[in-house]
Structure formats: C-alpha cells, structure tokens
Amino acid sequence: MAQISMVRKSQLEGAMRLDAEYYQPKYLEIARILKQQPKVANVGSLCKLIYRYPSFYNLVYQDHGVLVLKGEDIDAQGVIDNTKADHISRETSESFPKTILKKYDLIISVRGYVGKTGLVDSEYEGAIISPNLIRLEVDSSKISPVYLWVFLNSRYGNLQIARAKMQTSQETIVSSDIKNMLVPLPSLSFQTEIENIVEIATKQGFQSKSLYLQAEQLLLDEIGFKDLDLSHQLCWTVPFKKTKEAGRLDAEHFQPKYEHALSLLGQSGLQVKDIAKVSKDPFKARAGQPFNYIEIGNVHSNGLADSEKVLGEAAPSRATWAVHTNDVITSTVRPIRRLSALIEEEQEGYVCSSGFVVFQATGIQPEVFLVFLRLPIVCEILDLKTKASMYPAISTDDLLELPVAMPPKRVSEQIVQLIGDGHRAWRKSRRLLEEAKSKVENLIEGKA
After folding, report:
1. How many whole angstroms separate alpha carbon 378 and alpha carbon 438?
2. What is the distance between the alpha carbons of residues 384 and 335, in angstroms, rounded to a whole number?
3. At what angle do helices 155-164 and 409-444 cross, to 10 degrees?
C-alpha cells in the first residue's frame, strides 16, 4: 500500500533535500525516536575527521604493497575481510595521508556496496581506503568507536544510512548526510558492555581464521609443497611445441613453478571430476517468497559465506542455483581471489549466483575439498586458465580437469576437525555481534 507523508519547507533537512524517498514515514519515525533519546549527537560532532579519497584519482593496483580496502571488503555484519582486497605501492599511499587507516577508525561504503560500515582493527591498521569509502576518525573522548560501529550497523543506523542514499544513476551517499546522522549517547558503562561483547566476538573471528590457516598448512605440507620452490622466476625457456599444444603464448602461463606444482598435484592420478560432481539444482524466484541469496561478495577468508534476504520479486537475474548442506561453491570469476565456500546445514536450500559452480564432493570430504580449492597455488593455476580480461573467468570443464592431491585419511580427519572448529568459532562470533546490536536497539526502544 502506498504511503503519503507531508512535511513543511522549514522541516527540510540537511542539504535541503526534496526527494520524496527521503521523507518516507519510516525514516521520519526513526528520526523522531532518536531525537527523543536522553542524550544524542550527530556523527559529525563525534569525529575528528570525515574524509573521502579524491574520486578523480586512478589507482594502479598490484599484488603486494599497501592494502586497499573497498566496500566489497565489508561484510553484511560490518566485519572487514580482505579475501578480495587489492594493493598499491607505498609511495602512492603516502601521497594521500588522510586515507591511511588507524585502529578504531570507521569506514563507510558510499558507492557500489552502499552503506556497509566497518571497524578497523589492528589487522587493517595502515591500510588505505578506496575512492568508494569514507573514513571516520572517531574522537574516543566523546564516544566509543566500537559502540558507534555497532549502532551504525543496527536497525537505527541502517535506516539512517538507507535514508541518506541519493537515487542517481548510481546510488551514493555524501559526507554531509553522514555527518548529520543522529547517534544516542548512552552511559559509559553501557558502551563498555558493548565493547566487551565485540572483543569476544573479534577473538572468535580471529580464532576461526587461525584454525582455517592451520588446516591449509596441513594440506600443503602433506601434498609436498612445504619444501617446493614456488618463487617467481624471471627467466625461463619453453619449446615452441609446448606453446602450440597449450594454445598460449603468454609467458606467465609457462612459469616453472606451475609445472612443478601440477606435477605434485597429479601424483594421485585423479582430477576434480573423479572426486566431485557438478550440482545443478535450478532455482526459480516467485513473487512474495523471500529467499537467502549468496553472491560472490558474501564469501569469507575462512571458507564460509554470508547470505542476504531477497524478495522473490526483486531476485537478481544471477540467482540461479539452489545449494544444499556440504556443497562446495567456487567462483568462476577471478579464481585468484580464492572465493570458495562450504554450505552449512543452516544454509540448506539457499540460493547462489550463477557466478559459482556448485560441487558435491563424492570421493573426498567436503572440508578437505574446500581447503584444496582455496590453496593459493591452486588458485594461481586456475587463474592461468581464465579467459577474457574485464571479468576473467574459468570454464567448468577446466575446473573438472584440475589434478587433485589426496591426503591420507589421518590428515583428512585433522583437516575436517580444524574446519569444523573454525566454523563453530565463526558462528559464535556472529551470534555475539547480533547480541551487541540487539542490546543497542533495546536500549533505544526502552527495553533494556
């Protein structure tokens, strides 16, 4: 049902916005509730700096250097995850000192993944922001940066951010609208309580990453990569016959390290098609029936994926495949980014993008298959087989023909245990972050 609200000219807010979307009843109600809080301030008064990278500057990305965080590196709960992050040279980053992040800064995506808000921890201190992010240097003498981050990711923060979006050819948010967002200022003891919950959640998140890395190293050592020289050689020669057989002339394709790696992987005599099959369970969206959608941006560095609730009538055209417990999904686009994830029991029946290939592991534990697909050297090999330049993608056939190293049962069981423990830690972290948001929302609503 359509809703109508009327406002006086004197009530126009911010930069005199006249778009009707800005004055929807739900936004006016949120503003009313926040203004009634015992103590409230706007974001601009709580931060020493609110800065956006000059959008005219063209960044040149590289494999190593200073980390560049983008909107896609902030997940649905506001946690920064560098699975897909790029780098620039240190010299370039030092040319824009206001972009260099400090611990407890907040970053807000203002274009592309609009509205995502992340908290910078020690892992990302020293990184810089892309032109699509705004950096908030929070004045900790006025407010806890952790509490502010939780608030901005709560219902009351999300709705203010949604209200600030400008509906142009591409959604965007301007700095002035962020500065005008209202924030309740509860007691210091309450802010400390939120900090304590987030601290435990953060530790659980780190533990999840650590356990995954242990599983990865275990598999690498077992395959034989521990003592293998995988350095990038500057010079090498290849017979013309070999280039003709491969149908490639680019030098990178014939790096000696890839030949060594493929030799090790091929010792089992097995390929992906021998231990997993492609699952194609088609999904058809229906109006009025919401579903949980997993897209490439939802994949995390620990081999798990978030999802977003989508209305059937608003289903993306790429919402193609239904997934099931213990499926392993892997992105065909830019495989170098290691975007593979294991579908958990609670994600049974979710839907994933057509940018993924969905596998059912038949001759290998799905946890081991997941770790194998995400091994850095394996992803480099897959990346060599991509076609096109704008969105380099690998074919399903090339994935199925990838040689697979099979660890012994003892090692496989250890990997399964590590991945399981890591996923449990990750879920605990998510529950705690939800608890922190609920506490903030309940306080605002007088339910605390």
Report:
1. 41
2. 9
3. 80
Predicted confidence at residue 140, as pLDDT, reads 96
What does the DSSP 8-state code read for residue 71?
Answer: G
Q: What is the per-residue pLDDT across 283-294, written as a single tens digit (0 to 9) for each?
A: 999 999 999 999
Gap between the Cα atoms of 150 and 195, Å rounded: 9
Domain at 210-413, CATH from 3.90.220.20, 3.20.20.370, 3.40.710.10, 3.40.630.30: 3.90.220.20
Dig out the tokens for 61 from the structure: 């990305």
Report the chain's mean pLDDT, rounded to a whole number.
Answer: 87
Instruction: Report the C-alpha gap between 119 and 194 in whole angstroms.
Output: 14
- Whether pLDDT at 388 is above 80: no
Burial of 189 (0-12, 13-18, 19+ CB in 10 A): exposed
> Whole-prediction pTM value?
0.84
| 9-185: CATH number | 3.90.220.20
User: Which residue type occupies 60?
Assistant: V
Average the pLDDT over 8-17 and give the result.
Answer: 55
CA nearest neighbour of 77 among 350, 445, 436, 344:
436
Between the two ends of the chain, the Cα-to-Cα distance in Å is: 33
Residue boundaries of the structural domains of the chain: 9-185, 210-413
CA atoms within 13 A on the CB side of 379: 20
Q: How confident is the model at residue 236 (pLDDT cuts 50, 70, 90)?
A: low
Is the fold of 9-185 the same as that of 210-413?
Answer: yes
